[in-house]
Design goal:
Blueprint (H helix, E strand, L loop, with lengths): L2 E3 L21 E2 L4 E5 L5 E5 L2 H4 L4 H4 L4 H5 L1 H11 L10 E5 L2 E10 L2 E8 L4 H17 L5 H16 L3 E7 L5 E8 L10 E2 L6 H9 L2 E4 L7 E6 L19 H10 L3 E9 L2 E10 L7 H42 L8 H6 L3 H4 L5 E6 L2 E6 L4 H14 L4 E4 L2 H4 L11 E6 L5 E6 L4 E6 L6 E4 L2 E4 L5 E6 L8 H73 L8 H26 L8 E4 H11 L1 H7 L2 E4 L4 E4 L1 H17 L8 E6 L6 E2 L4 E10 L31 H11 L3 E7 L3 E9 L8
Helix pairs in contact: 5-6, 5-9, 6-9, 9-14, 14-15, 16-18, 18-19
Protein name: histidine kinase
Keywords: Chromophore, Kinase, Phosphoprotein, Photoreceptor protein, Receptor, Sensory transduction, Transferase
EC number: 2.7.13.3
C-alpha cells in the first residue's frame, strides 16, 4: 500500500495571493491530530503526529478499519455521536482512544468524516466559564448602545479566555476593518479606533470565516503537521473549511509574527448572512483554551449579533424620530393643486430635516426650485442626466459623486445625493456637502502586501498612519433614505393630481367655449338658413313666371337658362332644409321610448309611394322589432335610406329593396359598444366600392356628380347622426354593380332579455 502526504506546495505570488487555496493546505496545527474516515469506517487520512498522542503511527492507521484500530467500544460511541441530535460543532465527543482521553470534533467533508482529536481539558474550567457568562448576561442588559455592548463583550471575552488583547473588529461596505471596541493589558499599546485595509483579510478568508465561525491558532511558531492518505487517486485532497486544527496561510502567520502575536482566537460575527465583523483575541505567547471556553467565547459573539439590529435602532431612534416628525408635518400640509404650490414646498425647513440634507432641488416642467446648499442649475441638470443614463429604477443614492461620476468630480457644493424620479424628466434631489475626515490606519493601507528581495510577505509596520479622506459626504442612514422615499412618493402623487387638475380645468374651459360656440352656430345656422329660404322662394317664383311667359315661344333661347336657375334654387332649398334637420338633432337617448318599427316603415313607404310607383320598385319587409327610439327621427331615417336606394337604382333592372331585422335581442359587439337589435336595408342598385363604406356617412360626401344623381350629400350623414344620438350605430356594405346594404344597430334597453 502506497502512502503520500497531501500538503499543498503551490507558491503564493502577488497575482494569486487573493486566490490562495487556504481550505486545502494538507496540514494541521500540532496541538491535536486528525483522522479521515470513509463511509465504510476505513481510515483514509491520518496526520503524521498521531504517534505523539497515542501509541500508533499514521502508517499503522491508514487503510485499516476504525474498529480494528481503536476497538468496538470507541466505534460505537462515535457512531452514536454522529447519528445523535447533538450539536456537534458545540459539544465535542469525549472518548478514549487507546487508553487516552480526548475531546473530538467531528464534521463531514464531502464523503469523509473528519475527526480532530485534542487531549481532554480539566472539567473544573467549565464551572468558571458558566459563572462568568451569567455575570456577563446580567451586565449586558444595562447597556443601551451597540458600542457599549461591544465594549462589554470585549471585556467579558478577555476575562473568560485570558487573552492579552480582545478586539471587536467591524467591517465597512468594502470590508475595511475598524477596531470598534477593545480590552487589553494595561502595558499594551491600544489599537482602539485604528482601521485595517480589506486586503488584510482577503476574499477567500472572509468566506471561510462565514463557513467556520471560530478560528484558533495555539502557537504562531508552530511547525505544521502534514496529512497522509492512501495513494489510490490522482490529486486526492481533503477540504478543511470546517476544521478547528487547519493550518493557516503562511502569509497570515507572518502577518501575525510581524505584529508580535503568539496565539490568536477569532470568532465570526454574522449579520443577515454577511460578515459584519470579528472578535479578534491576541496573546503574546502561545495559548490554548478548552472547548468549553471556546464555546463561551463564541456565545459572546452571538450576544453581539443578536443585538445589532436592536442596538443600532436604539442608537438611531432619536434622529429617526425627528425625521419622521418632519415627514409627518410636511405631508400633512394641505397644498393647493397648482404648480405654484412647489414654491411653498421648497421653502419648508422640514423638507431638509426629513433626511438631514443640506440642500434640495425639485425640477418640474423644466423649472428648478431650490433651497439650502445646492449646486448651480447646470450642475443639477448634468447630474440628473447622468443618473438617468445609469440608474435601473427611479431611485439613486451616493455619498461620493466624484467617484461615481468623474464628469462631476470638481462640481462644488455637493458630494452626496439622494435622487428620486417624479415621472418623466421631473425629479427631486437632496444634497450633502463634502465631509473631510481623518482615518487612522494601522500602517499604510497601500502596503498591506510587500514584495522585496526576500520574496512576498505581509507588511511589518503597524504604526498609526493618518489618511485624509475628501470627496465624501456623511453616510445616508436607512431611516433618512426611507423618509426621502416616502416624501418623493407623496410629491409624485401630488404632481400627478396637479396635472390632472390642470387638464380638468382645461377641458372644462374648452367645454364651455365649445358649448357657447355650438349655441352661436346653431343660432347663426338657423337664422342664415331661414333668411335664405325667402330669397330662394322669390327666385323660384320669378323664374316660374318667366318660364311660363317664355314657353309661349318655344324657340326662346333663355328657357334653358331659366330652367337651370329654377333647379338650382330648388336644390339649394332642399340643401338648407337638410342642414336644418341635421343641426337640430342632438342626443335624444334620454327621450327615447318604445316604438314599433313596422309602423315606422308603413308611414315612410306611404310617404314615398309615388316615387316607388314611378321607379316600379318592390319593397320586401319582414317583421320588425320594437326598439327604444324617437318616432319622427326613425321615420326620417327610413325615408332617407329607402329614397337613397331608389335614387341609386340600376338602369338595367327594377329596384328591389329587402328589409330584414333581428327578431329577438342579441348581443352584438364592436370595438367599443354592445348592441341588441339590428335592421338591414339591402338593394340591387348600382352599389359602391367597399373602400367608401366609411366616407359615405360624411356630410356633403358624394360618389357621383350632380348631373348624374341629384341630392345634397347629407342624407346618410343625417342617418348616422340620428343613430349616434340614440346611442346606436350604422354601417354600409357595397359591391359595384350589385347593390348596397345599410345596417342600423340599436343599443340595449333595460327590458331586453338577451339571447
Amino acid at each position: 500500500m502506497n502512502i503520500k502526504d497531501i500538503v499543498n506546495r503551490d507558491l503564493v505570488t502577488l497575482t494569486n495571493c487573493d486566490q490562495e487555496p487556504i481550505h486545502i493546505p494538507g496540514k494541521i496545527q500540532p496541538h491535536g491530530f486528525l483522522l479521515g474516515l470513509t463511509n465504510s469506517w476505513t481510515i483514509d487520512y491520518c496526520t503524521d503526529n498521531i504517534s505523539f498522542f497515542i501509541n500508533l503511527s499514521h502508517i499503522e492507521a491508514l487503510g485499516n478499519k476504525f474498529e480494528s484500530v481503536f476497538g468496538s467500544r470507541a466505534q460505537e460511541l462515535l457512531f452514536n455521536y454522529i447519528n445523535s441530535d447533538t450539536v456537534q460543532d458545540v459539544f465535542p465527543l469525549e472518548i478514549e482512544l487507546l487508553d487516552k482521553k480526548f475531546q473530538v470534533n467531528v464534521h463531514k467533508s464531502h464523503d469523509i468524516y473528519v475527526l480532530e482529536a485534542e487531549p481532554q481539558f480539566d472539567r473544573q474550567i467549565l464551572g468558571d466559564v458558566y459563572t462568568q457568562t451569567i455575570q456577563f448576561v446580567t451586565q449586558m442588559n444595562s447597556t443601551k448602545s451597540l458600542k457599549d455592548l461591544c465594549a462589554l463583550v470585549a471585556e467579558g471575552t478577555r476575562e473568560i479566555t485570558g487573552y492579552d488583547r480582545v478586539m471587536i473588529y467591524r467591517f465597512d461596505e468594502q470590508y475595511n476593518g475598524e477596531v470598534y471596541a477593545e480590552s487589553c493589558r494595561k502595558d499594551l499599546e491600544p489599537f482602539f479606533g485604528l482601521h485595517y485595509p480589506h486586503t488584510d483579510i482577503p476574499v477567500q478568508a472572509r468566506e471561510l470565516y462565514i463557513r467556520n465561525q471560530m478560528r484558533l491558532i495555539v502557537d504562531i511558531n508552530y511547525e505544521a503537521v502534514p496529512i497522509f492518505t492512501v495513494d489510490d487517486k490522482l490529486d486526492k485532497n481533503l477540504d478543511l473549511s470546517l476544521s478547528v486544527l487547519r493550518s493557516t496561510s503562511p502569509i497570515h502567520v507572518q502577518y501575525l509574527k510581524n505584529m508580535g502575536v503568539g496565539a490568536t482566537l477569532t470568532i465570526s460575527l454574522l449579520h443577515h448572512g454577511r460578515l459584519w465583523g470579528l472578535i479578534a483575541c491576541h496573546h503574546y505567547s502561545k495559548k490554548n483554551i478548552s472547548p468549553a471556553v471556546r464555546l463561551a467565547a463564541k456565545l459572546q459573539g452571538q450576544f453581539i449579533t443578536s443585538q445589532i439590529d436592536i442596538r443600532e435602532s436604539n442608537d438611531e431612534n432619536l434622529d429617526a424620530r425627528k425625521t419622521i416628525e418632519a415627514l409627518e408635518h410636511i405631508t400633512a400640509i394641505d397644498l393647493p393643486l397648482a404648480e405654484n404650490s412647489l414654491e411653498t414646498v421648497i421653502e419648508l425647513p422640514e423638507l431638509l430635516a426629513l433626511c438631514n440634507a443640506a440642500g434640495v432641488s425639485i425640477l418640474f416642467r423644466n423649472k428648478i426650485y431650490k433651497n439650502g446648499l445646492t449646486p448651480e442649475d447646470h450642475h443639477i441638470v448634468a447630474f440628473a442626466a447622468l443618473v438617468e443614463q445609469r440608474k435601473s429604477d427611479d431611485f439613486y443614492v451616493t455619498r461620493n459623486v466624484g467617484d461615481q461620476f468623474p464628469e462631476l468630480e470638481n462640481s462644488p457644493d455637493f458630494a452626496g445625493a439622494i435622487y428620486h424620479s417624479l415621472g418623466g424628466s421631473n425629479h427631486i434631489i437632496w444634497y450633502r456637502p463634502e465631509t473631510i475626515s481623518e482615518i487612522n490606519w494601522a500602517g499604510d493601507p497601500e502596503k498591506s502586501i510587500v514584495k522585496d528581495q526576500h520574496g512576498l510577505h505581509p507588511r511589518n509596520s503597524f504604526n498609526s498612519w493618518k489618511q485624509i479622506v475628501k470627496g465624501h459626504s456623511s453616510i445616508w442612514k436607512k431611516y433618512e433614505l426611507n423618509s426621502a422615499a416616502k416624501f418623493a412618493h407623496s410629491l409624485h402623487k401630488n404632481l400627478i393630481m396637479i396635472l390632472l387638475s390642470e387638464e380638468e380645468e382645461k377641458y372644462r374651459r374648452q367645454s364651455e367655449v365649445l358649448r357657447e360656440t355650438n349655441s352661436e352656430l346653431e343660432n347663426i345656422n338657423w337664422i342664415s338658413t331661414h333668411d335664405l329660404q325667402e330669397p330662394l322662394r322669390k327666385i323660384q317664383m320669378i323664374t316660374s313666371k318667366l318660364l311660363a311667359d317664355k314657353r309661349l315661344s318655344s324657340s326662346d333661347p333663355e328657357i334653358d337658362s331659366l330652367e337651370r336657375v329654377s333647379k338650382s334654387a330648388t336644390r339649394m332649398r332642399e340643401l338648407l332644409q337638410d342642414i336644418l334637420k341635421y343641426t337640430r338633432i342632438k342626443n335624444t337617448r334620454e327621450a327615447a321610448e318604445k316604438i314599433d318599427l313596422n309602423l315606422i316603415f308603413e308611414s315612410a313607404a306611404e310617404e314615398c309611394s309615388e316615387l316607388i310607383e314611378q321607379k316600379n320598385a318592390v319593397i320586401h319587409c319582414e317583421q320588425l322589432p320594437e326598439v327604444s327610439a324617437i318616432g319622427f327621427l326613425m321615420k326620417q331615417l327610413f325615408l332617407n335610406i329607402i329614397q337613397n336606394s331608389l335614387k341609386y337604382a340600376s338602369l338595367d333592372r327594377s329596384p328591389v329593396i329587402t328589409i330584414t331585422a333581428s327578431q329577438e335581442p342579441v348581443i352584438i359587439k364592436d370595438r367599443f359598444n354592445v348592441y341588441c337589435h339590428w335592421v338591414k336595408f339591402s338593394d340591387n342598385g348600382i352599389g359602391f366600392d367597399q373602400m367608401y363604406s366609411e366616407s359615405i356617412f360624411k356630410v356633403f360626401t358624394r360618389l357621383h356628380n350632380q348631373q348624374e344623381y341629384s341630392g345634397s350629400g347629407i342624407g346618410l350623414a343625417l342617418c348616422k347622426k340620428i343613430m349616434q344620438s340614440l346611442g346606436g350605430s350604422i354601417s354600409a356594405e357595397g359591391a359595384v354593380g350589385e347593390g348596397a346594404s345599410i345596417t342600423i344597430y340599436f343599443p340595449c334597453d333595460p327590458d331586453d332579455t338577451l339571447i
